[in-house]
């Protein structure tokens, strides 16, 4: 790798991070009402163009426009910085904007300043995922797209947002794990579909126009940034057909088919030797063909340049362009396609018709966004403006999301909640105790404002503040003594520790799961000295091995706040003092540090080896020791489950006519493509009783295990989440929760060839401590 130039994208990321850290709220550009992007009603010519006829079908308009473009013009529309076509009255457009958990200025399409000094900054996605509340995920998407449209109208934002990131959190070291909804494919897929629906607007809203266009990324098997000398620009992910079908593809399929996302981004890495952005099997056949993407496929930033320049996958830039376009890429983040496309066509490596195909996809999305409908202010969403950004309701939702996502990991005693009457002075210690931007994680924007943990707790009680460590690296003990003294003198001690972007970030994977530097030592020493109960609050995206604190009787309680967003300090304080009863659950496994020794980050396999020398990944396949399991999360109350109703037998009707044959009993499996899957679901009714004295929210998690005899030969998941539902239950009350389990999607297992099959026989459902068996039987077949 020596001698290889750093890809432009890496340099761009570094520049952006630099900008982010120095720009904080400085207005760089004055906002103003946006001029029409195209089809300006004041423009004589525009009225005559069929592509400007807002009432015509979009594909027809797109075809008309493509038919008017020259090859040179077409080439310049293939990059994120799409050029203007002045002779057709079309302005330039910057495609690259981001809105992972709030409108972000990572990406040149969006800026803060003027009338738009900031936007609502929601918790980082891993925290929001921990709420297990799909309505919350959609509600956040709605707020973010209100603010995005407002900024677009004001000339400060784009309409195409390259969010969410729905790669599986496969490895706990991944620096971008924080951006994802965790390790479970179904949770990630449900998050994707919900957030995308929120962003893009419900069907029928906005006169059939998209509110903004979302993008599910990075397709696929991308979850390594820079580990042990291997980086994402050079990594070849070797993925089995089985893992591809039952892990990596699941969220993307759900995003496209259920979320109806308008874009998918391919990744930097190769999968089985082919760069994802050059793989027709992944892009054309799967995303556009099998899943029917209605939208565009975009590259990760400069990834075509990367597979030519860094991976040497093609010998010329022109061949790289042709491979990408033919594979199904429609838009390049970067200048590579704009630069080399004409030569590739002239050299006969591809046809102009191939480019037309790409442009039909991108232009259609711009048309569905209303960009060719003339005056923005006269359109759906046209009245959104500065008054719709950082509204009290939006900021309240950011606070609510943090309250719903924070996870109570330990509560011995119980030490929590604290009480302002008994805990009149609380020592607040730690490098994350008074932070602002740490709370929003990466891919953030400029927040409307922040409440730090210190400020949040200060609203409940008197605080004694000590940093303890100068920063999260915590390389010395200079500040320990002050912290210890504070703990000695206070009625309770809250340590706010953990990570930030200096430890886990894009292009920075961890090599340890322990707390950095001497943080652990500080926690133990402070806990030893503390007069009152000691509470550990952790900020981190990925899991941290805090076994020492879990096992330390002096650390009475532990909260995981993830990166809780702009209002994180209020949410943490509300939970510590019991104004909010925590209900979040971990969306990923917390492994012990020694897990890393047997698991190279580069090994993609989800399943353990037979010898268990390689123990497998995520709760679905890994059965070894954990610090905290997937789904763990405590409450200040106590919930009891009782099964109200669930079928004990489900008949699976088969499609078509087949010979009567004894092969469909237990021990056999029916191919999903041979079953009549529509509406084939299994309804479970469960009563959740709140047996404690506080109101609270509880998430029902339904796991299934396939029959031993049916599925074992394919090494199916140990168990698999097949449904979840968050429910609010008042103290002493009981609520009924209904969960529908889709038989073909959820109870099928994937064989070694990547084929989904439904094993017949006893499937075991587990909901907390309730266990229920359902027998699946193929319908008796007709003799032919
Ligand atoms: C059932 O079908 C299998 C192959 O699908 C065949 O090998 C077997 O002989 C059949 N059994 C009977 C009873 O027809
Ligand atoms: C889920 O989130 C929505 C939006 O914040 C909220 O109204 C609802 O109460 C939440 N549900 C539960 C059970 O917490």
Automatic annotation (TrEMBL):
Primary subcellular site in the record, as a coarse category: secreted
Lineage, highest ranks first: Eukaryota, Viridiplantae, Streptophyta, Embryophyta, Tracheophyta
Cellular-component GO terms for this entry: extracellular region
Taxonomy, superkingdom: Eukaryota
Protein name according to UniProt: Fibronectin type III-like domain-containing protein
Signal sequence, renumbered to the chain: 1-32
InterPro entries: BXL (IPR044993), Fn3-like (IPR026891), GH (IPR017853), Glyco_hydro_3_C (IPR002772), Glyco_hydro_3_C_sf (IPR036881), Glyco_hydro_3_N (IPR001764), Glyco_hydro_3_N_sf (IPR036962), Ig-like_fold (IPR013783)
Gene3D superfamilies per the UniProt record, alphabetical: Glycoside hydrolase family 3 C-terminal domain, Glycoside hydrolase, family 3, N-terminal domain, Immunoglobulins
Domain Fibronectin type III-like: 698-771
Keyword set includes Iron-sulfur: no
Family as reported in the entry's similarity comment: Belongs to the glycosyl hydrolase 3 family.
The keyword Glycoprotein is annotated on this UniProt entry: yes
Annotated localization: Secreted
GO terms, molecular function: hydrolase activity, hydrolyzing O-glycosyl compounds
Keywords: Glycoprotein, Glycosidase, Hydrolase, Secreted, Signal
């Amino acid at each position: 790798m020596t001698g290889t130039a750093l890809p432009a994208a890496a340099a761009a990321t570094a520049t952006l991070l630099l900008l982010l850290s120095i720009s904080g709220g400085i207005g760089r550009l004055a906002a103003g009402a946006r001029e029409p992007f195209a089809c300006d009603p004041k423009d004589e010519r525009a009225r005559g163009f069929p592509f400007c006829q807002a009432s015509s079908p979009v594909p027809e308009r797109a075809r008309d426009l493509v038919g008017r473009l020259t090859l040179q013009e077409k080439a310049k529309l293939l990059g994120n910085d799409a050029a203007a076509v002045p002779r057709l009255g079309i302005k330039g457009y910057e495609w690259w904007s981001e809105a992972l958990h709030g409108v972000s200025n990572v990406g040149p399409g969006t800026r803060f300043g003027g009338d738009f000094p900031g936007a609502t900054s929601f918790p980082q996605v891993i925290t929001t995922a921990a709420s297990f509340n799909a309505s919350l995920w959609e509600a956040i998407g709605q707020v973010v797209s209100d603010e995005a449209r407002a900024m677009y109208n004001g000339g400060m934002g784009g309409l195409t947002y390259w969010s969410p990131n729905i790669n599986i959190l496969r490895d706990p070291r991944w620096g971008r794990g924080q951006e994802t909804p965790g390790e479970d494919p179904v949770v990630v897929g449900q998050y994707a579909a919900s957030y995308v629906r929120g962003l893009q607007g419900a069907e029928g809203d906005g006169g059939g126009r998209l509110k903004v266009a979302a993008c599910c990324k990075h397709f696929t098997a991308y979850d390594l940034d820079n580990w042990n000398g291997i980086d994402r620009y050079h990594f070849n992910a070797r993925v089995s057909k089985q893992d591809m079908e039952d892990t990596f593809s699941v969220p993307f399929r759900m995003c496209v088919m259920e979320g109806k996302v308008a874009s998918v981004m391919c990744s930097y890495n190769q999968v089985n030797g082919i760069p994802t952005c050059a793989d027709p099997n992944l892009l054309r056949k799967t995303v556009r063909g099998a899943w029917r993407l209605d939208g565009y496929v975009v590259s990760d930033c400069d990834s075509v340049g990367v597979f030519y320049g860094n991976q040497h996958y093609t010998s010329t830039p022109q061949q790289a362009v042709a491979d990408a376009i033919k594979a199904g890429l429609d838009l390049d983040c970067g200048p590579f396609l704009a630069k080399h496309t004409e030569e590739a066509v002239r050299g006969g490596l591809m046809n102009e018709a191939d480019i037309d195909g790409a442009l039909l996809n991108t232009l259609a999305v711009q048309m569905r966004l209303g960009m060719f409908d003339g005056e923005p202010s006269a359109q759906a969403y046209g009245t959104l403006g500065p008054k719709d950004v950082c509204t009290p309701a939006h900021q309240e939702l950011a606070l609510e999301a943090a309250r719903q996502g924070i996870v109570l990991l330990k509560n011995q005693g119980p030490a929590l909640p604290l009480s302002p009457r008994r805990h009149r002075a609380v020592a607040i210690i730690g490098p994350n105790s008074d932070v602002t931007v740490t709370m929003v994680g990466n891919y953030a924007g400029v927040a409307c404002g922040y409440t730090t943990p210190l400020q949040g707790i200060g609203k409940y009680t008197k605080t004694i503040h000590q940093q303890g460590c100068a920063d999260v690296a915590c390389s010395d003990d200079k500040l320990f003594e002050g912290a210890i003294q504070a703990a000695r003198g206070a009625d309770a001690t809250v340590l706010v520790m953990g990570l930030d972007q200096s430890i886990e970030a894009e292009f920075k994977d961890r090599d340890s799961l322990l707390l950095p530097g001497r943080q652990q030592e500080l926690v133990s020493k402070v806990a030893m000295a503390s007069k009152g109960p000691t509470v550990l609050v952790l900020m981190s995206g990925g899991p941290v091995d805090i076994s020492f604190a879990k096992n330390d009787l002096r650390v009475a309680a532990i909260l995981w706040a993830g990166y809780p967003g702009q209002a994180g300090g209020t949410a943490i304080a509300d939970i510590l003092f019991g104004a909010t009863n925590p209900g979040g659950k971990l969306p990923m496994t917390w492994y012990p540090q020694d897990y890393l020794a047997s698991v190279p980050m580069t090994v993609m396999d989800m399943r353990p080896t037979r010898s268990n020398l390689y123990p497998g990944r995520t709760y679905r396949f890994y059965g070894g020791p954990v610090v905290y399991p997937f789904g763990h999360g405590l409450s200040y109350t106590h919930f009891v489950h009782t099964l109200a109703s669930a079928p004990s037998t489900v008949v699976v009707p088969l499609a078509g006519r087949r010979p009567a044959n004894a092969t469909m009993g237990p021990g056999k499996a029916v191919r999903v493509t041979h079953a009549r899957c529509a509406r084939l679901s299994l309804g479970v009714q469960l009563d959740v009783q709140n047996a404690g004295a506080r109101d609270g929210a509880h998430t029902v998690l339904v796991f299934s295990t396939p029959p031993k005899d049916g599925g074992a030969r394919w090494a199916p998941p140990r168990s698999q989440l097949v449904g979840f539902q968050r429910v609010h239950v008042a103290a002493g009350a009981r609520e009924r929760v209904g969960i529908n389990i889709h038989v073909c999607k959820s109870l099928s297992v994937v064989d070694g060839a990547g084929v989904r099959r439904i094993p017949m026989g006893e499937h075991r459902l587990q909901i907390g401590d309730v266990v229920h068996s359902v027998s699946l039987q193929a319908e008796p077949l007709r003799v032919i």
